[in-house]
Amino acid sequence: MSEYDSIRRGKLVLKGEKQKSRKRKHKSKKHEEEAPKVDLDRVKHGNWWKVTKIEEISGPIAIEFGDQTYVSALDNGLFTIGAPHNEGDGPSPEEILTAVLVDEKKVAFKSGYNKYLRVEKNGIVTGRSDAIGPMEQWEPVFQDGKMALQCANECFLSIDPEDDSVVAKTRRAGPEQFLTLRSQTVKEENPLKDVPSEEQGNISQIEINYIRKFQKFQDKKLKICTEAKDVLKKAKEEGSLHEAMLDRRSKMKADRYCK
């Protein structure tokens, strides 16, 4: 039987019938790594990417109106719209501003001449200020994928079609006021990526997150300690936040690890 076992059994081949050779089908790799996506818009603009939220407005910034035409600073403190750039080219040095976040809603811009942009009473935008005041603050407005910049006179930044000067004279944002802010700053990764989800948020939210994680009662109603949270803030600074939260949960008998 061992001799028969050594014979490889296959499909029965009749006399005169040609045996078809089997072609091996190469299965596509399901886990094959995908090629990184290329930001074509960024490549087109010389590695300057489109800003989509106020947190991204910092460092080198260019204000783009239309397609690859940018606001350009003049040596007399005024601004104009620069000449169109070729595809793949970024803004010129005189078209690069420095953005400064004032607060969660407002930003300020400094020209290459080290002066801050402001709007004058006549609506003309100038760059002659040495410090940031109310008139030097701008509010980015994002809506439906479009963006506009509103200044202190409640008008929006635009280009005067008569002389290509930069002005803010219109209280409603339309196609002529729509612009794109472009940045070359390296995008920072999420600073909370290594922080457990339970510890993301303010001190009150963190405590609620851990109560939900360790609660032992069946009615699913949260039992939160009503004592002041100052002790939690101090414990967080000292590195003993978890112990302090456990003590508070033990008082409410709201933790399966509490005795």
Explain what this protein looks like in three dimensions:
- The chain has 259 residues and is an alpha+beta fold.
- The protein has two domains: 40-183, Trefoil (Acidic Fibroblast Growth Factor, subunit A) (Trefoil), CATH 2.80.10; 197-251, no CATH class.
- 16% of the residues lie in helices and 22% in strands.
- It is built from five helices and 13 strands.
- A hairpin with a 3-residue loop joins β2 and β3 (69-73).
- α4 packs antiparallel against α5 (241-251).
- The longest helix has 12 residues, at 203-214.
- The protein is elongated and about 75 Å long.
Annotated CATH topology of the largest domain: Trefoil (Acidic Fibroblast Growth Factor, subunit A)
Strand tally is 13
The main sheet comes to: 7 strands, antiparallel
SSE order in H/E notation? HHEEEEEEEEEEEEEHHH
CATH architecture of the largest domain: Trefoil
Structure annotation, total helices: 5
What would the average pLDDT be, to the nearest integer? 82
Helix fraction, binned, reads 10-25%
- How does the overall form come out from the CA principal axes? elongated
Head-to-tail CA distance between termini: 72 Å
User: What is the alpha-carbon Rg in Å?
Assistant: 32 Å
Low-pLDDT ranges: none
**CATH level 1 class label of the largest domain:** Mainly Beta
What number of domains?
2
List keywords for this structure.
259 residues, 22% strand, Trefoil (Acidic Fibroblast Growth Factor, subunit A), 2 domains, alpha+beta, two-stranded antiparallel sheet
